[in-house]
């Protein structure tokens, strides 16, 4: 039992800005002088509609999302969208439903499996043979001529592999941005669709965000569940049914917090500094090592290993004693993973590196 906040390196649900949690706590029982909390008000009422509209406007401002794109606040997570994407977009293919995939880890593997239920999937490239420690060189991608879109995962949360550029392709680019949305500056025009769950870098689980070029709407398969029909959701301001109101409210508070921090460009600078601190230490260490190719190391999920794996448990336990929690790697990868999203302060990363140094000295 601890009586203070720890540095939580969990991959998701993940740490949230303390300021945001405090404000949410203050407003829990009485929001905007209504004598009720956000969770208790109508999603169609004036107060919540304003909260929703402000959240959308702030996200548009933060990511510089043009009016030619719809912003949807949905449910079902990124996994739900893995089904929604083919149902909404595959009919755009000219010779029957089809899409291209660049497989860089377990999240794109899952996307492929789900999409295959709705049409033909073409694996344009895969880094499986490399243990998902790299991103296949774009010049080697075998894109098909008749695919509706090209699906990538901008940041593989489990393996710790991140695209450091946005690929330019002739088809709409669909990107799973669950774990690096708002962490770096993108030109939205380079994407057809950006989608992700909120619980990594935005807010609580239960909210998923879809940003889709409006031009791509209007082609959903007739079997598409209405809650995942982007066209219908876009026509009804994501309120075709009751949206995840508390998640939207909290995401809105995080967007305000991001604006106070200086926006996405300022976060990107900070994320570069935080991840460099960790990788630079790992690279010169004789105990710790990283398997991910230097050119595609994730700034959000830093995966690393102890060269002597028998020390893993002692390392994790020692960290927890110092309030550095959830640094164990995903079971499919092993080793360690420090997830250092926007809300993880530099102080947390400094504390982790100081502990790693101390641990290494003791070995
Ligand atoms: C966490 C994660 C998912 C799964 O999202 P859910 O919201 O649990 O459906 C999918 N893709 C990536 C990249 C993730 O990090």
Proportion in β-strands: 15-25%
CATH architecture of the largest domain: 3-Layer(aba) Sandwich
Q: Name the shape in a single word.
A: globular
Tell me how many strands there are. Answer: 14
Number of domains: 2
What letter string, H or E per element, gives the SSE order?
EHHEHEHEEEEEEEHHHEEHEEH
Query: How many H/I helical runs?
Result: 9
Give the biggest sheet: 7 strands, mixed
Rg result: 21 Å
Rounded mean pLDDT is 97
Distance between the termini: 28 Å
What CATH calls the topology of the largest domain is: Aspartate Aminotransferase, domain 2
Low-confidence stretches: none
Instruction: Give the class-level CATH name of the largest domain.
Output: Alpha Beta
Secondary structure: helix percent: 25-40%
Bound molecules: pyridoxal-5'-phosphate
Record the strand order, biggest sheet.
Answer: 2-10-9-8-5-3-4
In CATH, the homologous superfamily of the largest domain goes by the name Type I PLP-dependent aspartate aminotransferase-like (Major domain)
Secondary-structure content class: alpha/beta
Secondary structure elements and their pairing?
Elements: E1 7-8, H1 18-27, H2 46-63, E2 69-74, H3 77-89, E3 98-103, H4 106-115, E4 120-126, E5 150-153, E6 155-156, E7 161-162, E8 173-176, E9 193-197, E10 208-213, H5 230-235, H6 245-261, H7 263-284, E11 288-289, E12 301-306, H8 312-321, E13 324-325, E14 336-339, H9 346-361
Helix pairs in contact: 1-6, 2-6, 3-4, 6-7, 7-9
The structure holds pyridoxal-5'-phosphate (PLP).
